[in-house]
Design goal:
This protein has 5 helices and 43 strands. The protein has about 775 residues and is mainly beta.
Length: about 775
Amino acid sequence: MKFNLKTLSVVLLYAGVISPSFGEALDIDKVEVVSQTPLATLGVPVNEVPSNVQVANSKNIQQQQPQTLADFINDNLGSVNISNGTGSPVQPDVEYRGFTASPQLGQPIGLSVYLDGVRFNEAFGDIVNWDLIPMNAISTINLMPGSNPLFGLNTLGGALAVNTKNGAEFQGTSATASVGSWGGRQFQFETGGIIKDYDLDYYTAGNFSAQNGWRQGSSNDLNQIFSKLRWHSDTSALELSLALADNDMNQAQTIPSSMAAVNPRQLYTGPDWVKNQMAFVNLKGSTFISDTKLLEGNVYFKRSNSQGMNSNAGLDECLGFSTSNNYPCTPYTGGGNTGYLNNVDASNAYSNIQQSTVGLSTQMSFLDDLFGYHNKFTGGASADISRVSFNQNTFAAQLVGNDTINDPTQSPYLQDAVNFAARNYYYGLFATDTISPLEHLNITGSARYNVAEERLSGNDNDVANISPINSLAGSHTYSRLNPAIGLTYSPDKALNIYAGYNEGMRAPNALELECSDPTKPCSMPTGFTADPNMKMVVSKTWEGGFRGRLDGGWHWNAGAFVTNTTNDIQYVVSSTTTGYFSDVGTTKRQGVELGFGGKIYDINLNANYSYVDATYQSDFTMGTNSTVANNGCGGSCESVTKGNQIPGIAKNTIKLRADTYLIPNLNVGATAVLISSQWAHGDENNLDPQGRIPGYGIINFDAHYKIDNNWNLFAKVTNLLDKQYSTYGIISGNIYAQTLAETNPQLFISPAAPRAAWVGLTYNFGGINSVASTVDKD
């Protein structure tokens, strides 16, 4: 079979010879492509994508040595910031353009995440466990903005596509050992190579790290293995990959701001912990039927098991409890002040979530000209079938110091027992076509028809409130055709203009459906009640901008976007401890993105600025822990009105990166991250004077020294200036407020880590492209 140049570029891309580089996405002279569908075999040049796509690669990751993928994109990619309500450094929430990808159940997930073409959002709650993705196995990262329908469910604000390394591109073996602050220790290895006689290549990576944590109860222990075996000929390729993870993470959670001011390292209550295990197998293949027709597909199996404990302690002011329920209630009268110290209602919730998903996708791409114009068409289908088992028992406890200790003397000791199962069936049909009616004009049209079916069963025995057993059975189906259209125009090699419109959807997940009855609120994530039907969330995004290159190799971009969502879902507080999920109407995220980068006097520079304005566009009323009344609603609720800012989203973010070689073998770099203030959760009407989280700015430093061809030394320092700041806040009641003179409720925050340092040594041998051998000199 004869190959034309276009076909050859696709083969090279699949083999890993061509990959996008951070800060080089717009070099039109290079054949650099990104995939417009989750399967990454075939892509289009970046200048044909009608949105501000951002890319990075393994060299960028190696240079900065981030702990998680979330840390890396927060430090480098525009319109991204992280918040950390769990207090665990490896389990943050990622916010992009005002939409969230989170490991916490109950968060509204508006971003889809893919690993090697497989949807990585969990079946239960659509959450994303960042701790399960091994950083040293990542080859490329593509952040696709907007409501791109081709990436399926939850792509309301964007999609993050992560691709892993292969043995053809990453040959050789490396081993890295490093130590750092708070008892940090890490060992990483990777090895890859080619077996020419059998047209095979192989790659294996391991990551084993542990840290005691800078706060009490914030240690983590990560164990990850990734392996890939590929066979490829001139026209076909087949790869089998395996990922395993076994991680233990303790969560420090938030603490009252008054406690943080005295000692930010202390716990509020504990212990809280999560144990995540995963096994993931993915078989992917492609073959050129002709030099202009490519058939590709994959089939995968993913199984995860998550065990957790959540400690809970709230104020019990002896209201609504009779002595027959055996609830202790002894008023605190120390020093003549009436307080709350002994009026604590404590409990411990133990959960076990088992999830199994099998899925497949297939697509056909045609590169033939259409009506004499260059054209690229891809159409396909996908199916993801999941089974979820959720079991949770909540036990009565006593607060001893900061620990909630199970107390079998209380009756009932078992307060709540949930046994829940769900089957999810996700199907999709999709197509996309890019045509070039003029030499420098590209028009792209896409569509995807989604079907999401959720079958629920189980029961909730609310023993504590002596309620009847609640049936959790139900069945819900959501479907929609989501379109997209866009264009790009390049009048010359220095300028590229893009504009587009797209739509996406999110189906309410099983967790939201089972906690959506306002007459039966539940505590999150400790219990279910019922499953009234809810509406699907629909997002519609307009985007446009400019990008190009200046003399001297400088690249730049400037754009704007607007995303409107209807039937947005939020956890609506109904009391100090309970709430329910509800459609709160329309929301809007709009903003501006600016970026530039280049090289001056041997210094590589990159900068990104973004402005994100996220607001409610519908009025609604919800409960609140804030003491600020609004519109006659009273002190226990707040009226949210059109124009109020959505909590947890920073309006302004700035990312700056610079690195250079001080001497031939010594590279030093620094990253600055500046984030503006944000509103705390629980202050949705933006009226509480303590409801604002201050902005912050931090600097991270890294250095790499090549000792010889085999040995490399590196060091990194995070939060170099030792700034005190927080990325997350929520208004809640403080059980330790011993006098009414102390503000209660008050702002709870998750203090960020102070200055920390790591140093490591890498040994490389046996290859010519070992990724750890040097940092990028380009």
